[in-house]
Amino acid sequence: MEAKLHHKRPKHLNLLKIKQPLPAVVSILHRISGALLFFPGIPLLLCGLQMLLQSSQSFEVLQDYLRNPVIKLALLLPLWFFLHHLCAGIRHVLLDLQIGIVLAQARTSSKLVLAAGFLLTALIGWQLW
Questions:
Q1: What is one Gene Ontology biological process annotated in the Swiss-Prot or TrEMBL record (predicted)?
Q2: Domain extent for 99
């Protein structure tokens, strides 16, 4: 019996071929969005703040950058990072409080986090355009 089980085990584990459940995908996206908010997000935010406060000429340059439709479109991605990270963080806090820990509820809350992230990004993006 052991010999039969031993031959069926994979020799290597390819994580790209394994289909993750939706709560795992939301959790992975939460970690990725947090990392991307930290490294490129904070330096870019500080650079924009410096341009905002340095002089009136640099403020006008920053306004010109932000009026560009390509830049506006590119800023939707960090906006989604932030909103997804916020919604998934609230979900994780609720899970830590033992709320929504049943599998069906966890799947539903994962769907809500994804939908809320995209919906809030679309609403705020529409408002900014």
A1: tricarboxylic acid cycle
A2: 33-128
Q: Within a domain: residue 2?
A: no
How do residues 21-70 score in pLDDT, each as one tens digit? Answer: 999 999 999 999 999 999 999 999 999 999 999 999 999 999 999 999 99
Structure tokens at 37: 């908010």
Asked if residue 7 belongs to a known ligand binding site, the reply is: no
The b-or-e profile of 81-118 (16+ CB within 10 A means b, else e) is bbbbbbbbeebeeebeeeebeeeeebeebbeebbebbe
Residue 70 confidence (pLDDT): 94
What's the start-to-end Cα distance of the chain, in Å?
65
Structure tokens that stand for 117 in this block: 């992230």
Tokens representing residue 2 in the block:
């052991």
The first and second tokens of residue 114, run together, are 């994804």
Q: How many structural domains compose the chain?
A: 1
